[in-house]
Amino acid sequence: MAFIYSEFLTRLFSFGSHFGLFCLPIVFSLVSASLLLWIGISRITKARSSSRLVDSQLPTPLIQILVPLKGITSHSKKILSSLLTQDYPNYRVIFILEDQLDPVIELVRNFCSSYPHVGIFFSGKSYHCGQKNFGLARAISELDPDVEILVFCDSSNSADPGWLTRISEPVRSAKFEVCTTFRSFSPQDINVPGVCQAIYATTVFALLTVTPKPWGGGTVIRRKTFERLQVVDAWSETVVDDLVLGNILTKAKIQVHVSPENFLSTPVKKQKFSGLLAFLDRQILFPKFTNPVIWGFTVIWHISICVSLIMSTCGLFLYSLGYIGPEYAVLGLIFWIGVFALVLALRYLNHPRLPILKWIYSFPILIMVATFVCFRSIFLKHIDWAGKRYYCGRGGLVTKVKDLKMS
């Protein structure tokens, strides 16, 4: 039996066409990752290393921060209060809730009684689009007409006091109509699922600097631009806000400025693999419906790098046993060196920088889990998000909404 098994492995990794098949996924995944990620990594590094003062002479028009809320965590008070204590002199914050039954209601009411520039908006339940989209669309329709700039920010993201002043500068200076940024995850319990989530988010952040578009985090847009593009109409039919907005901006040929130096921070407490899977599901499934080209490349790339991890490891192992030639080991070694270099560079971007050993050995685990999510996404026609199941068609159009508690 051992002889038959070794003979099979020898034939599998023999010269000729088999070596070409061995090379294909490794070369594709490594070259594509290196090309895209190194561009993003260099841009983020350059932006963060260049210290530049904000122009204090710029106008300070009224800014409205819109924060959709669902549920409460141990970090909610600290995160939300960070948005209420910005040093920008002329802004308001509105928290958008589905109804008064949400457990975060008491915290929000305390904020409203403590800060004069804070408000609360109850959107009601959505039956035809994403709940977040529905809340944003309804809240925007009732904003003060004096508001000139809109800021969309997730409720899980913490900002330093100067964030709003800095992130709004490109829009206030009229250099851009839209400015966006992403986030770094900060696992409080530095376990494998938490580190995997941090690695994935940092990878997405690097890629966004190559192909700029809103993708969670925080986005600043001039209100006139937002209304001219009729974003509310699109949101009222679709499942997700940021990717739909990005597609509208692309169609209108409006340049999006990515601000890597003004990233947000998201604390994660005791992440579990179930939480990691839910995060990856959203990251991979949303573009399936809104941006199928991005989703398709994501699926192919994850499967390719997963196969490459396995094949390069097998190549090194089988060469050490004398079953195959050195060319397999050399290519496998090149692949792993390239992967380690990229992984370490991504760690440099994440704040805080997590322990290097956990960061390194969490990467192949992340690839396996993300590949599973990618493969599963091929067969799914719905997205589970915040207690609801959304059935979607092309462009992210919602065809049906189900309450998971009742389904």
Account of the 3D structure:
It is a single chain. The protein is an alpha/beta fold and 407 residues long. The protein is built from 15 helices and 12 strands. The strands form 3 sheets. Strands 3-2-1-4-7-5-8 form a 7-stranded mixed sheet, with helices on both faces. The protein has a 3-stranded antiparallel sheet with strand order 10-11-12. Helix 8 (192-210) packs across helix 14 and helix 12 (273-290) crosses helix 13. The mean pLDDT is 91.
Q: Strand portion, in percent?
A: 5-15%
Described by strand count, sense and barrel closure, the largest sheet is: 7 strands, mixed
Mean pLDDT: 91
Order of strands, main sheet, comes to: 3-2-1-4-7-5-8
- Name the shape in a single word: globular
- N to C succession of SSEs: HHEHEHEHEHHEEHEHHHEEHHHHEEE
- With helices defined by DSSP (H or I, 4 residues minimum), what is the helix count? 15
The secondary-structure class comes to alpha/beta
Overall radius of gyration: 23 Å
Give the end-to-end Cα distance, rounded to a whole number of Å.
Answer: 51 Å
Please count the beta strands (DSSP E, at least 2 residues each). Answer: 12
Parts with pLDDT < 50 across at least 5 consecutive residues: none
Helix-residue proportion: 40-55%
